[in-house]
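Q: Could you fold this chain for me?
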Amino acid sequence: MLATHSPTGRIPPGEQWVHEVKWDGIRLMADVRSGELRLTNRRGIDVTVAYPELGWAGGMPEDVLLDGEVVAVNPDGTSNLKAIAPRIHLRDPKRIAQIAAARPVQYMVFDVLRLESRDLTRLPLGERRELVEGLGLEANGSSWQVPPQYDDGELLSQVTLDAGLEGVISKRRDSPYLPGTRSTNWLKVPHRTEFVGVIGGWVPETDNPKRLGALWIGHPHDEESFPTDGLLYPITRAGSGLSSAVRDELLGVLTSIEVDACPFVPRPTGPELKRAHWVEPILCIQVRFLGQPGSFSLDNAASAPEAGQLRQPVLRRLRPDVTPLEAPYVEVEEPV
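A: Sure. Below is the predicted structure, expressed as structure tokens.
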């Protein structure tokens, strides 16, 4: 069962809703039959071998089907999908064991679909939640957790934003579990917003210098002098989001407008700059990042000592309809 975006972009009001932290992890089903655990991803692929630290302990239910999120929790309490990514496609137990020892994951269980051969999907969420809390999953150690639910969604939204978490999932207390359905009974309110920036440079892929890896993005450093000096202050570096076809087409344009001098002031830092190619700052692109409107502004970006401070930036689409001088002020559609 999948959530839809809140139509208002806000937490739904009313006592009929309960609210949970939206984790930045991987959705997995935990299917236990005769005491044997099998983990599957959203495509139904068995990925049990990838998460050895989630071993099933004795004394647990012999027959249960759980829904949850595998997360790698940072010391500050945030979750990091990038920390899980290296093992997603691994199947070598030795290599996986090394990764698991260095960066163990936790399984955040938020629903139960079957218990002792009984189908629970038609029960309301409130009753299923009581069953989850009564399963004694803590017997599996710290790797298994039942994260709390909250009545005050607005407060949870503010707390998760301040903590740098992904956002909030709001669920109707009376909602059944609808497998394979993206339902309005579950609403997600991620802390993400978008802006339009100017491309000032690019970095090739590590393994293929002829492929576009990431873009350096900024805004005009000084609007009055920009038509003459073309200088940008750096906002972020972003690589994910565009299709291979769009990347290839964009790279062809970028190579045709390369320049020798870095257009950013202050100059970005980092080891990848050794491979950077600078371009004439004439192309605009829309970017999504983790944070609500207001967490990004011209003032705080201009005062940043270096680029890359935006969390989880994703390239959305090129904006040929926007000029560099318009980029800081152009309105963008709400993320969907």
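A (continued): The first strand starts at residue 2 and ends at 5.
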